[in-house]
Amino acid sequence: MTATVVRPTAQPELLALLGRTPVVRVTAELPYAHPGFWAKLEGLAAGGMKARAAVSMLLGARERGELRPGAPVVESTSGTLGLGLAFAGQALGHPVVLVGDSELEPSMRQLLRAHGVRLEIVDRPAPQGGWQAARLGRLRDLLAELPGAYWPDQYNNPDNTAGYASLAAELSAQLDHLDILVCSVGTGGHSAGVIGPLRRHWPGLRLIGVDATGSTIFGQPARPRLMRGLGSSIHPRNVAYDAFDEVHWIGPAEAVDSCRRLARGCFVSGGWSTGAVARVAAWAARVHPGAAVATVFPDGPHRYLGTVYDDDFLTAHGLDLTDAATRPVEIPHPRAAEARGWARCTRVADPLKGKR
Ligand SMILES: Cc1ncc(COP(=O)(O)O)c(C=O)c1O
């Protein structure tokens, strides 16, 4: 059976809503008092942080002739890029077909469908490569079914990274100075995209990557993960390994504890990745007194009301916030020990170096 999708009318005026997000000074205790850090609130823009990447990838493909006017766009996503693509699809006039999985929150499914996305859900992880591999399998079937369909491939597409040039430009205009930038890493897109331009502006800038426990991006063994957004069970090519000065792995208890402290203490908050970067940014501000620290909050709290902010969810998943680590365990090398909670390593290397 050949699947069909309805082509939306392009609304290029939407592109004026891209980015231009505010920064706010965060001083809420996380869990200790700290001098404060800057947070870029990407959840406040239409289409969220990944609208920047989505618009960049579709415009790039249009320019190269890989995406014809009105042709469908097909992508695998755990949500945030899906919303960005829903935005970019409407702005540029492309139907959007997304492959999610059983763990995609019901509210996010509703939101994507409300924005006209056709959503396909895979219901079991692949034996090798987990949910991501299962989603990619379904995506390949869709590419074969839908004539002219284009797959942005966010994990490996350099236009994903390039889309964050605007984020870097905004940060360099909004902040007087920056010593340390803390970024969550999923596809590697936003950290790779901002660090080059920001280091041209502030040459001494240090970059701290924040990954999830159980993610294999920085060389730890891949395990089933509760947290979404940051972390991966594959090795995305977009990760700029050479750019990172250190990496932290954060567990779900630390992320939830931080999200809730943010929501209570300074109103702005978000989901797993926001909680994770906030904890590390507060730590960095505390251990480097006088340093200007900034981070990116990729989205807001709404998507996570049934997870991060739900006590029943925590109980069902055996999460006890009194277990949340208050400082990282140091490991000398990513393979030296498996991170079970907050861990830190100052040796960062591409685990696939020489194998790609
Ligand atoms: C909510 C959220 N936070 C953080 C990230 C990580 O960003 P990046 O893919 O640019 O590394 C993602 C990526 O999917 C995300 O969805």
UniProtKB/TrEMBL annotation:
<keyword id="KW-0663">Pyridoxal phosphate</keyword>
<dbReference type="InterPro" id="IPR050214">
    <property type="entry name" value="Cys_Synth/Cystath_Beta-Synth"/>
</dbReference>
<dbReference type="InterPro" id="IPR001926">
    <property type="entry name" value="TrpB-like_PALP"/>
</dbReference>
<dbReference type="InterPro" id="IPR036052">
    <property type="entry name" value="TrpB-like_PALP_sf"/>
</dbReference>
<feature type="domain" description="Tryptophan synthase beta chain-like PALP">
    <location>
        <begin position="17"/>
        <end position="299"/>
    </location>
</feature>
<protein>
    <submittedName>
        <fullName>Pyridoxal-phosphate dependent enzyme</fullName>
    </submittedName>
</protein>
<dbReference type="Pfam" id="PF00291">
    <property type="entry name" value="PALP"/>
</dbReference>
